[in-house]
Amino acid sequence: ENAENMYFFSDLALTLNEPEERVAPTDSRLRPDQRLMESGRWDEANVEKQRLEEKQRAVRRRREAEAVEALEEGKDYEGYIPLWFERKVDAVTGELICVYKGGYWEAKDKQDWSSCPDIF
């Protein structure tokens, strides 16, 4: 119903970005720039997007500096390690894939997001 006014998106597509309570603070549906954009506050959304991107760049620069420092000191540097996924080689295709390693649902049940980075 009314699909022509919704760009002919399916019901699923229209609801994918709906907010949900009790999710990790890193859930992309919580992006402040996205919320502003969806409210039609385009100028504020653009400023917020620029702030988030600069925050991401700063984290990347810090990690790169830490890697260089570790290399200079002859130490190993692990870099970023995802919280709930790990990279593995698919036994059939030989491709690198991300496999859920657990922890998200337990954290959600407890509402313990202390291991989540501050990305927004």
From TrEMBL:
It holds the Pfam family Oxysterol_BP. It comes from the Eukaryota. One of its GO terms (molecular function) is cholesterol binding. InterPro entries: OSBP_sf, Oxysterol-bd. GO terms for cellular component: cytosol; perinuclear endoplasmic reticulum; plasma membrane. This is OSBP1 protein. It comes from Glareola pratincola (Collared pratincole). The gene is Osbp_0.
